[in-house]
């Protein structure tokens, strides 16, 4: 079979879509209040740094995915179980994204539709595209990158044109605000959404121009960081801190306020579309990462065979993991605090250090 | 293998699709489109009397071949402890399910306003159907239910008419301002009090709720804007009218366009200036525990009418008029400020401003802000500019006899 | 109609092929008998006998009536028979061999006569419009090209009409078609490779490309695919299209067809390959991308700003014709809040009396529209008028007044119908129309969410398609910045210095044809 390859612009599009995914829609970094935009900016350098670590590891082992080089660096005895740890976490995180999309859809329009059906339809699409392979996925991402950009532009333009933005809500920044911003930037925003890029380590081996991976990736992380900053700043400046912090989906509330000339109103559909697209790509990458790591660890030749089982597990865990949205959010908080940092930051940094130490002292056989 | 897989996928897809049924699918002719909601105090304590104004599409003027005899709206009323409960109870009267996404107007009765409105707004935030940008008005000296029953000329659906009315007057007169649910919630969660525009009924409901009310050039019953209701902690405390109301909007930077009649020398109120642009900047500071409110207003306008003999081609005369305009605006704003201090409610947004810019100073006065506000001083600066005089310079004069 | 892929003719085929590949005998009567039997004593087989002098060998001329031009046949025969009975040395030409040699080398212009030795060769030559001369005691026949007969003249394009640009279109004759293109590209690098396909029909075909511009990998790929084809009949280029398509079950066509020589020429200059099939005016172009279906040659003839706007309009129409009714149904049934209030009240009052759900209403109208469209195409143009008048009544006022549909639905359906006709390629418009039904269906079940998910799957599917190895959605995905000058928009001609990248193109720069150079770069 022909090796599937993806190009720089496709990698760029995938990273941006992955980053924007759910982070655009759910409130992030709540502790920082109206300075959330500052927190995102503060977390951005950390995100870039983290990507560079993933990138370095990829350059060291250009043919291997995460689980492959974990075993090389730490040895099979430690590396294999450690990689195994990633599979449930990735699937769980994918299912959480799915849950968020399902919940927004249910609370916005589909209040009488079971979440099983809503999520199942999304999972079918994910399974379909993963069956087509990562190359097709990357090309689709490229098209949707433009669609998302255009929709984002339209939404932002309309919100601004409707005269809803009140910059007063963003300023002034007091000394406390800077401190709050920093404390919610690290580790919370640093890990979500930037740390989640750890999934990309499974995609990178398909990259056709290894040298360009650095540029494309870093640019994508910076662009998505700036877009997130801008969007959340707009949301706060429209809603004010109080409503922003109480809203389940602030971007949705923001767009419902739009009323231009009594005709352009209720653009909720655009936001829901953005969310569907974002979650679709984010979840697909999670599922892909989980699938290929499983395939790699259990020596399955064709990862496509695993797409359906992984999809079904993600689907069921999406609505069985939490009884309601409140407990879902609380689970997420704990997950973000204790588990994700380990997998997204600690282990990659550890791998990076161990690898360079072993290389330096020639401890590789 | 691959074909099998694809077959499975297709079967799965088909199954999932057929399972969906049409849970959320609703035909338009199964919906009763609610155009306005009115909330009054119920008969029992703690109960709401909720009134729904529902559109009858086939009788509206917009539709082709509208049946002129039928009423374009109908009214349903229910009592319950919650708004949602009341709207569900309405199903006993309505043949179709109430649909709220196009609600244009929320009228809060004076009764409920006096006993507190904080409870009724949550459903507007929480529901995905109700819009946050629905206009909110307070009925003055009458119930919300009767306001919703009255037909309005020109607009076949009264709620739309009323929401256009408030939009229109806040755009060109400035005594009232359009407040929607979203703003109202923001104000309620902020510090101090706030104001919401009121509605008044002229005439009686019995005449107004008949369509025949519209079959005359001067309608018997009509609804007009009636000042602004001042709220403190979510409860209506008093009403402000006229210059006080407009001065309040001036401080709140809500004036979009208005008219001021200024004195031309000896002649009182002889020149009409159309204010086309007005900006207000507010700064609050604490000087030894006493707040000082710096309010800077800059307004621009055109002279649209004069009955004086002032020579408008003369620059000096214009400067004089500008001074008069400043004086008049100043007087109006000061009047509004004093009225606010007398009620002891900071509905002028000064508290929020202080909190935003000086959070530490705010903490010291937070608890007794209303009293401290009443002691505060106003530092008002107004700059007025007259940009144009219309199609003529000097006014015409009839020859002196 | 004609048995194309049944097994029965195949059997007789194999029997026939046994004696067909057999060589000719020396017995003239046997040979002629063979021919008669082989063609089943067909009416249009004509055999004429000649004998110069009494003892000279008998000669027979064989040709097919209708496939040949009578004048050319007569000329050919008279030339062949113009030998004297005596050669230069005064010897009498009595033996068959002498006559054969004389006929082939002297009497006929050199090269005009070919020799045929087997029955199968003979049939192929005969059915291609050649005239064969058989001589007593000779196991070889002389054949000369006399093809002609009635063909349709070059006429105006009927399916791809243009305001500006050449008016000619291809005919059913492959030779004419090739010459029409050659007249546009007067360059020796325009190469034409002949081939024959169809075990029964023996259809002649040709692939045409510009050597040095065309991508050799694509060309080789196409040759292999064509050679792999095993089929009884090729009656139209549509057969070829379906046989070499990649991906199998896709609603989207992955080969472009055109009846305009200028369109073929333009695509050849872009490095594409044209496939000509005898008997049809429709020429296939490969490789094809999705966006080609929305381009017309006229785009390049009009000024760039106008062409750009028209192109964008076409893409807008594509979206309307695909998603129009679906979004309407979704908005009406699921997302009533999206509709502005006055419009909603209007729509509600229109729908008051309509007894059907919006989905059924939309479906009914769409099906009616398709019925009228199909009837309009199949009927003679005189009756077609009647159909469109009746159709207009059914779809329009009458249906509304009868209270069966709402006026807004009529507007939506007719708008989508008209939009679908703006797609220049008819086969793409058909695919879109088919998909429209699926999308309406999904919209009725899940509203906008269903549409969004289906659109995702659809775009993923489009991205997975390839035509001759070229990604179908290129140059959008994979994205190529330079190619954007001629995809959604049409930039001024002097900006378009780069040819579209079809796989790894060896000659991207326009206005310069690299001659006879074979490069196989392996990038991308």
From TrEMBL, chain A:
The chain crosses the membrane at residues 12-30, 36-54, 74-93, 113-131, 143-165, 185-204, 216-234, 269-294, 306-322, 334-355. This is Spore gernimation protein GerB. Belongs to the amino acid-polyamine-organocation (APC) superfamily. Spore germination protein (SGP) (TC 2.A.3.9) family. It is a multi-pass membrane protein. The lineage of its organism: Bacteria, Bacillati, Bacillota, Bacilli, Bacillales. Its main location: membrane. It comes from Paenibacillus helianthi. The keyword Hydrolase does not apply. It holds the Pfam family Spore_permease. It is found in: Membrane. InterPro entries: Spore_GerAB. Keywords: Germination, Membrane, Transmembrane, Transmembrane helix, Transport.
From TrEMBL, chain B:
It comes from Paenibacillus helianthi. Residues 227-390 form the Spore germination GerAC-like C-terminal domain. Keywords: Germination, Lipoprotein, Membrane, Palmitate, Signal. This is Ger(X)C family spore germination protein. Pfam families: Spore_GerAC, Spore_GerAC_N. The lineage of its organism: Bacteria, Bacillati, Bacillota, Bacilli, Bacillales. It is a lipid-anchor. It comes from the Bacteria. It is found in: Membrane. Residues 24-195 form the Spore germination protein N-terminal domain. Belongs to the GerABKC lipoprotein family.
């Amino acid at each position: 079979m022909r090796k599937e390859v993806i190009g720089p612009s496709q990698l760029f599009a995938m990273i941006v879509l992955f980053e924007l995914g759910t982070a655009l829609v759910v409130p992030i970094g709540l502790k920082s209040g109206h300075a959330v935009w500052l927190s995102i900016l503060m977390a951005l350098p950390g995100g870039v740094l983290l990507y560079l670590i993933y990138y370095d590891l990829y350059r060291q082992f250009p043919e291997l995915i995460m689980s492959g080089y974990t075993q090389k660096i730490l040895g099979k005895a430690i590396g294999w179980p450690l990689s195994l740890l990633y599979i449930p976490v990735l699937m769980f995180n994918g299912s959480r994204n799915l849950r968020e999309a399902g919940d927004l859809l249910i609370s916005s329009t589909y209040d009488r539709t079971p979440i099983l059906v809503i999520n199942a339809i999304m999972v079918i699409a994910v399974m379909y595209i993963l069956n087509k392979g990562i190359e097709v996925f990357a090309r689709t991402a490229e098209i949707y990158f433009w669609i998302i950009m255009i929709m984002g532009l339209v939404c932002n333009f309309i919100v601004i044109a409707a005269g809803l933005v009140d910059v007063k809500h963003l300023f002034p920044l007091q000394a406390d605000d800077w401190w709050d911003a920093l404390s919610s930037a690290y580790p919370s925003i640093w890990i979500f959404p930037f740390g989640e890029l750890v999934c990309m380590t499974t995609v990178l081996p398909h990259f056709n121009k290894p040298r360009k991976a650095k540029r494309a990736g870093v640019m994508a992380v910076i662009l998505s960081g700036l877009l997130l900053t801008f969007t959340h700043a707009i949301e706060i400046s429209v809603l004010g801190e109080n409503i922003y912090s109480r809203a389940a989906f602030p971007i949705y509330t923001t767009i419902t306020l739009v009323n231009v000339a009594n005709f352009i109103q209720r653009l909720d559909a655009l936001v829901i579309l953005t969310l569907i697209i974002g979650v679709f790509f984010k979840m697909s990458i999670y599922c892909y990462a989980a699938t290929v790591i499983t395939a790699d660890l259990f020596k399955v030749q064709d990862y496509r065979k695993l797409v359906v089982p992984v999809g079904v597990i993600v689907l069921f865990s999406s609505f069985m993991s939490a009884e309601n949205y409140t407990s879902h959010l609380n689970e997420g908080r704990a997950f973000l605090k204790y588990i994700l940092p380990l997998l997204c930051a600690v282990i990659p940094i550890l791998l990076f250090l161990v690898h360079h130490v072993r290389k330096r002292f020639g401890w590789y056989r | 293998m691959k074909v099998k897989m694809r077959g499975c996928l297709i079967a799965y897809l088909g199954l999932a699709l057929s399972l969906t049924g049409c849970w959320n699918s609703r035909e338009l002719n199964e919906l009763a489109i609610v155009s306005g909601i009115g909330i009054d105090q119920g008969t029992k304590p703690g109960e709401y009397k909720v009134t729904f104004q529902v559109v009858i599409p086939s009788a509206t003027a917009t539709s082709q071949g509208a049946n002129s005899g039928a009423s374009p709206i109908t009214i349903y009323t229910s009592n319950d402890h919650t708004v949602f409960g009341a709207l569900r109870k309405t199903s006993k009267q309505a043949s179709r399910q109430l649909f709220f996404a196009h609600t244009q107007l929320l009228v809060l009765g004076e009764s409920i306003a006096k006993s507190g409105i904080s409870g009724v707004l949550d459903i507007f935030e929480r529901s995905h159907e109700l819009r946050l940008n629905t206009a909110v008005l307070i009925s003055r000296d009458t119930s919300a239910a009767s306001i919703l029953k009255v037909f309005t000329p020109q607009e076949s659906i009264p709620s739309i008419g009323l929401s256009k009315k408030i939009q229109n007057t806040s755009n060109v007169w400035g005594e009232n301002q359009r407040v929607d649910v979203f703003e109202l919630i923001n104000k309620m969660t902020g510090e101090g009090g706030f104001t919401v525009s009121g509605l008044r009924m002229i005439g009686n409901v019995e005449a107004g709720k008949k369509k025949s009310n519209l079959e005359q050039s001067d309608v018997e019953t009509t609804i007009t804007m009636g000042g602004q209701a001042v709220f403190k902690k979510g409860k209506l405390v008093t009403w402000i009218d006229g210059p006080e109301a407009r001065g309040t909007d001036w401080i709140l930077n809500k004036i979009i366009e208005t008219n001021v009649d200024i004195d031309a020398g000896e002649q009182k109120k002889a020149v009409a200036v159309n204010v086309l642009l007005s900006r207000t900047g507010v700064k609050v500071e604490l000087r030894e525990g006493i707040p000082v409110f710096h309010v800077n207003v800059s307004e621009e306008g055109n002279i649209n009418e004069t009955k004086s003999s002032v020579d408008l081609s003369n620059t000096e005369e214009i400067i004089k008029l500008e001074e008069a305009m400043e004086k008049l605006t100043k007087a109006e704003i000061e009047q509004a400020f004093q009225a606010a201090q007398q009620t002891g409610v900071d509905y002028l947004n000064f508290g929020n401003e202080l909190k935003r810019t000086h959070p530490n100073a705010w903490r010291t006065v937070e608890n007794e802000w209303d009293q401290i506000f009443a002691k505060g001083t106003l530092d008002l600066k107004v700059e007025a500019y007259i940009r144009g005089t219309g199609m003529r310079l000097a006014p015409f004069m009839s020859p002196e006899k | 109609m004609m048995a194309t892929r049944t097994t029965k003719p195949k059997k007789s085929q194999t029997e026939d092929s046994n004696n067909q590949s057999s060589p000719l005998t020396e017995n003239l009567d046997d040979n002629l008998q063979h021919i008669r039997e082989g063609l089943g004593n067909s009416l249009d087989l004509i055999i004429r006998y000649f004998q110069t002098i009494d003892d000279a060998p008998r000669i027979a001329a064989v040709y097919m009536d209708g496939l040949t031009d009578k004048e050319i046949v007569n000329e050919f025969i008279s030339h062949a028979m113009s030998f004297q009975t005596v050669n230069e040395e005064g010897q009498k030409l009595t033996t068959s061999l002498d006559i054969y040699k004389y006929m082939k080398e002297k009497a006929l212009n050199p090269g005009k006569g070919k020799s045929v030795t087997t029955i199968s060769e003979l049939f192929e030559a005969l059915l291609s419009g050649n005239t064969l001369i058989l001589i007593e005691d000779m196991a070889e026949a002389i054949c000369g090209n006399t093809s002609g007969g009635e063909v349709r003249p070059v006429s105006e394009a009927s399916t791809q009409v243009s305001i500006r640009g050449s008016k000619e279109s291809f005919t059913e004759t492959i030779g004419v078609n090739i010459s029409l293109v050659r007249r546009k590209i007067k360059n020796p690098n325009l190469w034409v490779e002949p081939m024959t396909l169809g075990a029964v029909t023996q259809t002649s075909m040709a692939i045409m490309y510009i050597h040095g511009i065309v991508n050799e990998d694509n060309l080789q790929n196409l040759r292999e695919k064509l050679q792999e084809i095993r089929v009884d009949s090729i009656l139209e280029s549509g057969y070829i299209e379906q046989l070499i398509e990649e991906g199998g079950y896709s609603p989207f066509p992955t080969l472009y067809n055109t009846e305009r020589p200028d369109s073929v020429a333009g695509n050849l200059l872009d490095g594409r390959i044209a496939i000509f099939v005898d008997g049809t005016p429709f020429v296939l172009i490969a490789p094809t991308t999705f966006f080609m279906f929305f381009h017309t040659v006229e785009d390049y003839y009009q000024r760039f700003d106008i062409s750009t706007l028209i192109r964008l309009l076409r893409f807008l129409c594509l979206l309307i014709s695909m998603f129009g009714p679906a979004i309407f149904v979704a908005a009406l049934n699921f997302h009533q809040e999206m509709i502005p209030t006055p419009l909603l009240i209007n729509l509600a009052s229109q729908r008051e009396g309509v007894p059907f759900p919006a989905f059924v209403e939309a479906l009914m109208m769409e099906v009616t529209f398709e019925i009228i469209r199909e009837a309009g195409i199949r009927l003679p143009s005189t009756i077609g008028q009647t159909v469109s008048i009746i159709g207009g009544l059914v779809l329009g006022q009458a249906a509304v007044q009868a209270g069966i549909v709402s006026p807004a639905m009529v507007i939506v359906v007719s708008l989508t119908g008209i939009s679908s006709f703006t797609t220049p390629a008819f086969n793409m418009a058909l695919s879109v129309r088919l998909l429209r039904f699926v999308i309406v269906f999904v919209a009725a079940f899940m509203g906008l969410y269903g549409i969004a998910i289906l659109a995702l799957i659809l775009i993923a599917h489009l991205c997975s398609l390839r035509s001759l190895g070229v990604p179908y959605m290129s140059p959008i995905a994979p994205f190529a910045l330079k190619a954007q000058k001629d995809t959604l928009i049409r930039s001024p001609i002097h900006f378009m210095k780069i040819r579209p990248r079809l796989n790894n193109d060896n000659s991207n720069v326009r206005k310069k044809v690299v001659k006879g150079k074979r490069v196989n770069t392996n990038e991308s």
